[in-house]
From TrEMBL:
GO biological process assignments: secondary metabolite biosynthetic process
Coiled coil residues, start to end: none
Pfam entry (one): FAD_binding_3
Domain FAD-binding as annotated: residue spans: 297-367
Key word Protein biosynthesis present: no
InterPro entries in UniProt: FAD-bd, FAD/NAD-bd_sf, FAD_monoxygenase
Keywords: FAD, Flavoprotein, Oxidoreductase
Entry GO MF terms: FAD binding; oxidoreductase activity
Protein name: FAD/NAD(P)-binding domain-containing protein
Domain of life: Eukaryota
Length: 420
């Protein structure tokens, strides 16, 4: 039996996951969707995000207005990428160049979010609305209680509320071992340098017209630099395996010269190593822990609620896939909710979503961490062996990039039929 009223859906969280899903669902008149963000305004922190080819395909499947959002936000195809080894007897050798055709697009986060928000009717976007409780009412309806006391009754809630959100707790329970993200052993720090400064500190030979990205595998760490702003700025990222270097699981740590020297103590003393220390001390940096949902959640759905994006599967950034997985989540949720004609079908739709999305996204969480170990010279089979690393790394991206979105959508619909 079809519902005579539109199905009322609340998306919690206005990051890239929530904003992408909002656009996807708004195309369907039988869905009445609002988006709630706890912060005073919708915003994205950080400079750039890479949107890989699989996520671009998912955006195309969702269609307008999201399929053109990347281009409207000024995304550019990523420059070629060169992986090198920074330490040992082969220090400064090139391992391999990543093929140009595998590259995604890189975009400023704030610009992408702004383009995703632009098409949304402002009466449907709500800021300063921190969800603090979900009450289950009769007939499957939910009452959402926000911190300011405002309530809203809905047929479904989708938690796109990030790694510290609330909806995961509603689904898993407050004591579940998979509830909280773990602080991984990696901390990373970023610096933005004017091009001339970067050339002087790191060596002009790494900065030519090709604007190539460089990744350097170290002994217990990884250093990366790439060119932004049409060649005006260089972004440097240093990831340290702090389990060895600092032995601390604090979430952030000021980076001082002595700590950097300590973190790079095992790296061969090359001009690059000295440059990395200089980058870190010249610009006052902070190192932030990389968190991930390393304990697998047994489900992403409960009744009329589900989670997506970082709320479901926060991952370390080594394979650059967190936002991409959130976009794929949005594609599958739209595929399923388009078919839902009565609120009573929502639990089956969310279970189908869980069935197809959880295995893939949890695999990326673990693969990303394993990739981090290899890239920081700590892979158990690869360590700092140049040939083994060169063989082990390239295949790790295949299952992420070479993925058929149309088939994924069909699998979701088949699962939904089986559960309805
Ligand atoms: C260093 C780094 C580099 C990365 N690089 C890449 C990359 O190149 N490619 C890629 O695909 N991914 C990358 N990622 C991952 C990507 O940034 C994230 O996966 C993605 O931004 C998550 O989006 P989200 O919307 O799920 O979560 P968030 O961006 O965390 O958004 C959640 C929103 O929910 C709000 N919220 C929280 N609690 C509540 C509540 N109770 N009520 C209402 N609102 C709430 C928050 O304020 C926030 O706005 C990277 C991550 C890091 C850390």
């Amino acid at each position: 039996m079809s519902s005579t009223h539109p199905i009322k859906i609340a998306i919690i969280g206005g990051g890239l996951a929530g904003a992408t899903l909002m656009n996807a669902l708004l195309k369907h008149p039988h869905l009445d969707v609002d988006i709630y963000e706890s912060a005073p305004e919708f915003s994205e922190r950080g400079a750039a995000v890479g949107i890989a080819t699989n996520a671009q395909a998912a955006l195309d499947e969702i269609g307008e207005p999201v399929s053109s959002a990347l281009d409207r936000a000024g995304a550019v195809v990523m420059a070629t990428s060169r992986l090198c080894i920074a330490t040992g007897s082969n220090a400064l050798d090139v391992l391999f160049d990543l093929a140009g055709e595998q590259r995604g697009k890189v975009v400023h986060r704030a610009a992408l979010l702004s383009e995703l928000l632009r098409p949304i009717d402002k009466t449907r976007t709500h800021t300063n609305k921190k969800l603090s409780r979900i009450e289950e009412l009769s007939g499957g309806r939910l009452r959402l209680v926000f911190q300011d006391g405002v309530t809203s009754e809905v047929d479904a809630v989708i938690g796109a509320d990030g790694v510290r959100g609330f909806v995961r707790e509603h689904i898993l329970g407050a004591d579940h071992p998979a509830l909280r993200a773990q602080v991984s052993r990696f901390k990373d720090s970023r610096a933005l340098l004017p091009m001339e400064e970067a050339k002087a500190i790191l060596g002009a030979e790494y900065f030519d017209e090709s604007h190539r990205q460089y990744g350097w595998i170290g002994d217990g760490g990884f250093f990366m630099h790439d060119v932004l702003d049409n060649g005006k700025t260089v972004q440097c990222v240093l990831c340290i395996d702090t389990a060895e270097a600092w032995g601390s699981d604090a979430e952030s740590k000021d980076l001082y010269r002595s700590l950097l020297e300590q973190a790079l103590a095992n790296w061969t003393n090359t001009p690059l190593r000295r440059g990395i220390v200089e980058v870190g001390t010249f610009y006052t940096l902070k190192a932030y822990a990389q968190s991930h949902h390393f304990v697998d959640a047994p489900t992403y759905a409960k009744g009329h609620a589900c989670i997506m994006g970082d709320a479901a599967h926060c991952m370390t950034p080594w394979q650059g896939s967190g936002a991409g997985m959130a976009i794929e989540d949005a594609m599958i949720l739209e595929t399923l909710l388009r078919e839902v004609t009565d609120p009573a079908e929502i639990p089956a739709a969310f279970r189908a979503y869980d069935e197809v999305r959880r295995p893939r996204t949890q695999r990326v969480v673990h693969s990303s961490y394993g990739t981090g170990l290899i890239l920081s010279g700590r892979g158990s089979d690869t360590r700092l062996d140049k040939d083994k690393i060169s063989q082990a790394l390239p295949p790790r991206w295949g299952f992420i990039y070479e993925f058929d979105m149309k088939e994924h959508k069909r699998d979701a619909l088949t699962a939904f039929e089986g559960l309805s």
